[in-house]
Amino acid sequence: MLTINIETARRFILGKQGLWPGRRWRGTAGTEAAMRAMEYLQLDPLQILARSQDITLHSRVLDYAPGMWEDLAYQQRQFFDWGGWLAVRPMNELPHWRVVMRRERDGNSRIRNMAVEHAEAIEEMRAILRERGTVSNRDFAMASRKRTQSYRGRKDSALALYYLWRTGEVMTHHRKNFERVYALADTVAPAHLLRESDEAEADRFLIKKDVSFSGLSRPSRVAESFRGYGESDRATKKLLGAMVADGDLIEVQVEGWKAVHYALGSDAEVLRELSAGRVTTSGRSTSRSSSGGSATTRCRCCGATASSRASTANSTARPTPSSSWACGWRRRRSAPMRPLRRPWRVGLHAS
């Protein structure tokens, strides 16, 4: 078992989500790297200042522009969106998620009831998709459809399309004003990914992804998530023990926290480096003094150093975010993070 202090735990959790020690990615390629590191990019249609997915990526990626994630998902097909808790996931994970889709089709009472109540509409949507290629819920006027009272839609066509999407028969081809435009799965995903992985392989993948998403995850948190994938607490506990024995997971004790947490076995070295006071920035380790001071003071937004700030001040060239402090943050001294006033959680569970 690895023992770490609470400061290391906080930095590790934030670092896993790409929020510490600064924005480490840039542009479209950086957006893809950030989306993979985060494990899930939650999608939300509401737009006040900006949609949550764009805010999430802007806080992690330099030179991010709204819509970059859509290009990666719906043009390059590097990602797909799915789930009762709507999130974007890497396309190469699809075989594992197709196991979950099948479990939801067979074991989720809400999904089963939807299939029974709207069987005719589901068959109709299948036929229309084969004929047209792409279909949106807005293609069907309310006057011509059976009205429903569901959170997922007000027309039987909406629920039929949602059912086909949720069970993996169709996928999101693209979005128009954020609304899904559906297409049959074999026209969206590569053929070699339209399969189910082995059940045991899928179970291990789901646990590792959940632990990676949280950074440090309590056993009860893993069990709660895994129940949503159709497994009992007993099966989860047995599998967790096997994954610790195999080195896929490690047990971590955080000083001041009662429960033992899990982390990925592949993150053990990172935790040791952080515990030793070293921070990896762009592949280099920077030593920290025992008093918490930093050998190199960096902008917490753009990652620029004090030396780059000085060189920019003496230059007549226009400053850029990567080489200066043009992002607006002032030079600061590195200090331990202040205690959080209330619990913070990285994500939510699927409904």
Describe this structure in words.
This protein is 40% helix and 17% strand. It is an alpha+beta fold. Among the domains are: 24-76, no CATH class; 93-193, no CATH class. Helix 5 packs across helix 9, helix 7 crosses helix 8 and helix 10 (219-227) packs across helix 11. A hairpin with a 6-residue loop joins strand 12 and strand 13 (261-264). The protein contains 13 helices and 15 strands. The longest helix has 16 residues, at 199-214. A 3-stranded mixed sheet has the order 1-12-13. The protein has helices spanning 6-16, 27-38, 52-58, 68-75, 94-107, 109-117, 119-132, 156-166, 199-214, 219-227, 233-246, 268-275, 306-313, and strands at residues 2-4, 25-26, 41-42, 61-62, 79-82, 87-90, 134-136, 147-150, 153-155, 170-176, 179-184, 249-254, 261-264, 278-281, 284-287.
Task: Estimate the mean pLDDT confidence.
Answer: 82
Beta-strand fraction estimate:
15-25%
Q: Give me the count of strands.
A: 15
Instruction: Give the overall shape, derived from the CA principal axes.
Output: globular
Poorly predicted spans = 282-351
Please identify the structural class as seen in this structure: alpha+beta
How many DSSP helices?
Answer: 13
Which oligomerization state do the chains in this entry correspond to? single chain
Order of helices and strands: EHEHEHEHEEHHHEEEHEEHHHEEHEEH
Rg (CA only)? 23 Å
- Percent in helix: 40-55%
**Alpha-carbon distance between the termini?**
33 Å
Physical arrangement of strands within the biggest beta sheet: 1-12-13
| Biggest beta sheet attributes | 3 strands, mixed
